[in-house]
Each structure stands twice: as structure tokens, then as C-alpha cells.
């Protein structure tokens, strides 16, 4: 058990370093939503440039596949939120913190890498983020308030129309870093109680946004954290064979995934409750865990290499340097932790985040509603179930 705990703690440390009134009244199969804007909240899984604008800018090889330059995303290309925007016929979301060359006419992205639902006691330099969900929602309220002011002054061309806020889709992908923190504190606090608190705080922010006019909520659960390559023994300890039952058939850490599943179960229960309390709103729960795990389980069949393989970074002989590390040396030899030759064949980009190709695969499945409760495609997610 001590060794298991050590693995979990090391995994979390590695993670922290990377780290509308428009709801319809009918359910006609031909009816779709007229989303004019997206407002997104989350962590590095959907950060399109917040942390890069607020702190040190991203650098190549991040962004190399699609953007041909660093674009503030923790991937070689696009994130799932980018593919969602494309599917809805909207432009890619600009980060709220990025004032250079940004347009907010069709929404804004408040997600920030390393962010959590709960408040943190860590700085950026400790792998933390000042942009908890509470702060992201506060930033949104400021954005909405100032946008209304600009329109009254005849200066709102670069922002959503005031009526678009009620008809927007509000997307959420956050909680993974909270779970990582709970794993790190395993044995120091009640994990089940911590998960309940995380979900309760997330619920409070959803309710607050509802009171401010939000009516369509698209809520991702958390992915299989135990399947992230940095969680796996092969990337933590050299030539170590874990005890039986530590890993599942896909090489994922069972305990870490179990904690993620518990979070997801409570989140789903909460979304169902919100749906019964706020009958004029649409709350769609999206099972990202199952979508991502399906890809990992069928990696070879879907044209990908072993899902434990990391595209960007240096991971050999027990030496691990994360993506883009220019100051790495092994036995006196300078090593550049660059990217692999074919990112599109990999699921994992840097050990924590997914590649453009993997994000595309996942997005294509979730927008159909196949992994949603209720099973509404995202183009019809404003409809009341």
C-alpha cells in the first residue's frame, strides 16, 4: 500500500507540473439550437491561451501540428473545445485573458491550465493556478456586464450581443486537477468527502450562472486520470513491475480511475438534480471518461500507437523530461525533449494532454450525444429533455 501511495503522489506531482433562455419548448427531431456564442470554463483540457497570456507564453513544439506555432494550448494542435466550436459553426474561442488580436463576438474562454473547482493554496510557480472556477465565473460576470455597457455606448461590435448570453451554450471541463489533489492527500483527508465538496462547489457555480441568465449547460465529467501515461509505472519507476491488480487490462492505474469514477457518479447525480430544480434550463452531462477510455481501449484498431506512449518529451532509461524542456541532460549529454515524428498516430501528446488527432476522435463522438445524458447532440442541447 505504501508503494501504491508513492506512485499516486508522484503521479499528482507530475500532473501539477503540466499542468439560455434559448432552451426550446419542443423536442422535434428537426429542431436545432441557434447558438450565437460559447462560454467555456475549465482547466488545461480546454485552455486556449489564458495561462499563456497571463504568465509565460507557450512555445513550440506545442501547437506545431495545426497552428504551426504555439497557440496557448496544451497540445500539438486543437482541443476538444476547438472542435466543438467548429461543429457549431462558430470561430475558435479566444482566451479571456488574451488581449492581443482576440475577438469575443461569439463568446469567450475562461478556462486556465492547472485550474481547479476548489480554491488552491499554490502559486503558478508551484504548479497551481489563480483561476479557480469561482474566479472564472466572476470574470464571466464582469465580461457580461461590461459588454452590456459597451453596447449602450455603441461600442460593442467585438462582443456578443446582450441577447446572445441567454442563447449561448455554457461548456464545462474541470475537476481533473481537484481529483489529482485529492489523490495526493490520500490518507490525510476523507477522499469521498473531498469529492462531495468538489461537486457541491461546482454545482454552486452552475446555479449562480443560471441566476445570471445561462440556460444551456454542457458539462463534461472527468477523464480516466489513471490512463494518463504519467500515471503509469513505466513512466515513473525504471524496470518496476507493479503488484497484481494495480493496473487494468489497458495498463491504467485502477485506484486513480476509481476515484475519477466516484467523482463522475456524484457529478451525474448533481446534474440530474439540477435538471429537476430548474425546469426552464437544459443540463447535459457528457461522459468524457467513457469516450476517452473507449479510444484508449481500441487504440490500435483506431490507428493509434500504444496509448501509453508519449509523443512529446524524453522518457528513456528512467529519465523523464517534459515536452519542450531545453535544459535536460543525461550523463552529461544535452537532451532536447522534442516531439515525435508522427503526433497524429499518438493519443498522448505530453503524458497528460491529448493530441490534435485524439481530441478530434473524441469530439466527433461526444457532439453526437452518444455519450450524453440526456442523449442530445450538441446542436440540440438547448432542448428540454
Automatic annotation (TrEMBL):
<dbReference type="Pfam" id="PF00657">
    <property type="entry name" value="Lipase_GDSL"/>
</dbReference>
<dbReference type="InterPro" id="IPR001087">
    <property type="entry name" value="GDSL"/>
</dbReference>
<protein>
    <submittedName>
        <fullName>GDSL esterase/lipase</fullName>
    </submittedName>
</protein>
<keyword id="KW-0325">Glycoprotein</keyword>
<dbReference type="GO" id="GO:0016788">
    <property type="term" value="F:hydrolase activity, acting on ester bonds"/>
</dbReference>
<dbReference type="InterPro" id="IPR036514">
    <property type="entry name" value="SGNH_hydro_sf"/>
</dbReference>
<comment type="similarity">
    <text>Belongs to the 'GDSL' lipolytic enzyme family.</text>
</comment>
<keyword id="KW-0732">Signal</keyword>
<keyword id="KW-0378">Hydrolase</keyword>
<feature type="signal peptide">
    <location>
        <begin position="1"/>
        <end position="24"/>
    </location>
</feature>
<dbReference type="InterPro" id="IPR035669">
    <property type="entry name" value="SGNH_plant_lipase-like"/>
</dbReference>
